[in-house]
UniProtKB/TrEMBL annotation:
E.C. number: 2.3.3.9
Protein name: Malate synthase G
Keyword flag Transmembrane: no
UniProt-annotated catalytic positions: 323 (proton acceptor), 612 (proton donor)
Chief place where the protein resides: cytoplasm
Record-annotated Malate synthase TIM barrel domain positions: 320-549
Organism from which the protein derives: Parerythrobacter jejuensis
Length: 702
């Protein structure tokens, strides 16, 4: 502990202690000694509870494993299985009728519907891009993606043919969102715009005048039509319209969890420093682009003059959540007296809330929450007991920081099977601070496989999307959320569109999330947010939610996706292993060697997908399951891993910093990937974090 300093009854990394004392506590006026003692008391009160909750996960899993093992070879007894889960406390009684009581929620979460970004907090440039993605150019989004049914832009400057297709598409959008009293937006002329205004059919949609054009609203989202007849685009437009700028990413999650590789005090300090930067409004990042040094900073608000001639403004930035880590991991940034590491989720709760308290106190340049709330997404909780623990922990953090009760709001990620099966009880446990629930295919499928690991071999990964449990899971999340009053008070979200280059396909498919009742959904980039925002102009989600009410059955949710009676060919087994191994290696090598927790990784067909740690959980657990039940052999798995290592090496051949895995089978990245598969059955809940952290620390030490 020689590199640590004493604070309260804790041993703290010196740089982390100095950051908290000088840059966080001092502006808040907190006495450091009193704070550290309170923090120490909090840790010592909650770390044992955290440990007991993890022990209960392991106990339940061992009981479920034993149940399946004893019945191996017998037909699955669904009724007996549900009774068994109830007997061991995996399933708990449903709470009585209740409605959530959350107060002081910003409209971006409660009463507006729109896209949501998730961004790795360690990357300042990405974080700034996401925070600034509240407003996006529809022209840019159309021009640079495959959404248009038109030839791609010719190189060498502005392509007027491509531009004409963009303008036509944008006019079609305006006709849809802001219909005129007669005719089309395509018929407007320059003279008509400047002298007579815009003859909107519904005059209440007109909000006011901005410096660059006119502001409208549809389904609660704003649209700015900009005029500049002298611009490259405006001079080719008969009305002189130079752009259509729309509200895009209403909310952004700054992620400390699955999209980052944060394993020690150095990494956590960077995470907290970047969070402080966006909360205070002074985060900047300089980078080289085209031989020029550019500096990115947060954007200011959008100002306008309303129809009564009064000056008004709209937020210029996405409303920010911060995603803490779950209950599982510890971190060496802070040690307890016995030398054990602090539970990382407890550390995150205190540090990110203390930083966010500066926003509550109005110390930032712009401000995040306009109602004085702090928004924390809490992932990977298993059931209502763990949600209750988080609620109590946030109470204690509020007391430590002298904040009013329920200042800290919580987003509950419905990504673990025990949470899905007890979702109403989970919501009830945090009913006065909940602002968000969502679903996620990758983590949830990983936990589905691990929970029933001993039951038998699972269906192929691609077939999971058509399984009964998944359909029930997606529907129950919305239905239970609506039943308990989340509509108009909280977000009901859906998962990520992972292919940032396939925007045309996204525009066809992702509107389904709105039609299923989700008032937000994850997208992989600011451009994707702008395009996905079009869906929220086409569908009134809150109206859709009023027509939903049925809750899918628990028995469907508990249907295990077993491949009973399936006899795959050797080619099919190889294909499935190759798919899993390539995705696993493509991500692991970046995580371990480069410390990059989220990036666009080519899949086995060379399609770039935004991958994070959840990708590893589903792939490694699926391979471990097939290996356990003899669908494949260890030699077959290793053959796939080695062949796919060569493919991943080839996909990264253009990166001068990349270290090939082929032939370097003792390299830490390849060994980490092997461990994730061959030790997959024994990993807690099938999580990848313990092994990834272990091997990343080895890599950093080297």
């Amino acid at each position: 502990m020689s590199d640590y300093i004493s604070r309260g009854n804790l041993q703290v990394d010196p740089a982390l202690a100095a950051f908290l004392e000088d840059r966080v506590l001092a502006p808040l006026g907190h006495d450091p000694a009193r704070f550290w003692q309170g923090f120490s008391d909090l840790v010592h009160a909650y770390a044992p509870r955290n440990h007991d909750l993890l022990a209960k996960r392991e106990k339940l899993q061992s009981q479920i494993d034993a149940w399946h093992t004893e019945r191996r070879g017998q037909p699955h007894d669904a009724e007996g299985y549900a009774a068994f889960l109830t007997e061991i406390g995996y399933l708990v009684p449903e709470p009585g009728d209740f409605t959530i009581g959350t107060q002081n929620v910003d409209p971006e979460i409660a009463t507006m519907a729109g896209p949501q970004l998730v961004v790795p907090i360690l990357n300042a440039r990405f974080l700034l891009n996401a925070a600034n993605a509240r407003w996006g150019s529809l022209y840019d989004a159309f021009y640079g993606t495959d959404v248009l049914d038109a030839p791609p832009a010719r190189p060498g400057g502005y392509d007027e043919d491509r531009g004409a297709a963009v303008i036509a598409q944008a006019r079609a959008f305006l006709d849809e969102a802001l219909p005129l009293k007669s005719g089309s937006w395509a018929d407007l002329t320059r003279d008509g715009v400047t002298t007579g205004g815009i003859p909107i059919k519904d005059e209440s949609q007109y909000v006011g005048q901005t410096e660059q054009g006119r502001l409208f609203v549809n389904n609660g989202l704003h649209i700015e039509v900009q005029w500049d007849p002298d611009s490259a685009v405006g001079k080719t437009d008969r009305a002189g319209i130079s752009d259509v700028v729309i509200e895009s990413a209403l909310t952004t999650i700054a992620d400390c969890e699955d999209s980052v590789a944060a394993v020690d005090a150095e990494d956590k300090l960077l995470a907290y420093t970047n969070w402080l930067g966006v909360i205070r409004g002074d985060l900047q990042e300089s980078f080289d682009k085209g031989g020029k040094t550019l500096t990115r900073a947060l954007k200011g608000d959008k100002t306008y003059t309303d129809t009564n001639g009064a000056a008004q403004s709209l937020p210029g930035r996405s409303l920010l959540f911060v995603r803490n880590v779950g209950h599982l991991m510890t971190n060496p940034a802070i040690l307890l007296e016995d030398g054990s590491e602090i539970p990382e989720g407890i550390m995150d709760a205190v540090f990110t809330s203390a930083i966010s308290a500066q926003d509550v106190k109005g110390l930032g340049t712009y401000g995040n929450s306009r109602v004085g709330s702090i928004y924390i997404v809490k992932p990977k909780m298993h059931g209502p007991e763990e949600c209750s623990f988080t609620n109590d922990l946030f109470n204690a953090v509020e007391d430590l920081l002298e904040l009013p009760r329920h200042t800290i709001k919580v987003g509950v990620m419905d990504e673990e099977r025990r949470t899905s099966a007890n979702l109403a009880a989970c919501i009830h446990a945090v009913r006065d601070r909940i602002v968000f629930i969502n679903t996620g295919f990758l983590d949830r499928t990983g936990d589905e496989i691990h929970t029933s690991m001993q039951a038998g071999p699972m269906i192929r990964k691609g077939a999971m999307k058509g399984s009964a449990w998944l359909k029930a899971y997606e529907a129950r999340n919305v239905g239970i959320g609506l039943k308990h009053g989340l509509s108009g008070r909280a977000q009901i979200g859906k998962g990520m569109w992972a292919a940032p280059d396939l925007m045309g396909q996204m525009m066809v498919e992702k509107i389904g999330h709105l039609r299923a009742g989700a008032n937000t959904a994850w997208v992989p980039s600011p451009t994707a947010a702008t395009l996905h925002a079009i869906h929220y102009h086409r569908e009134d989600v809150f109206e859709i939610q009023q027509g939903l009410g049925d809750i899918a059955s628990l028995s469907d949710l508990l249907t295990i996706p077993l491949a009973e009676g399936t006899n795959w060919s050797e080619a099919e087994v190889r294909e499935e292993l190759d798919n899993n191994a390539q995705g696993l290696l493509g991500y692991v090598v970046r995580w371990i060697d480069a410390g990059v927790g989220c990036s666009k990784v080519p899949d086995i067909n060379d399609v770039g997908l935004m991958e994070d740690r959840a990708t590893l959980r589903i792939s490694s657990q699926h391979m471990a399951n097939w290996l356990l039940h003899g669908v494949c052999s260890r030699d077959q798995v290793m053959d796939s891993l080695k062949r796919m290592a060569a493919k991943v090496d080839a996909q990264n051949a253009g990166d001068p910093t990349y270290e090939p895995m082929t032939g370097n089978w003792d390299g830490v990245a390849f060994k980490a990937a092997c461990d994730l598969v061959f030790k997959g059955v024994e990993q807690p809940s099938g999580y990848t974090e313990p092994l990834l952290h272990q091997w990343r620390l080895v890599r950093k030490a080297n």
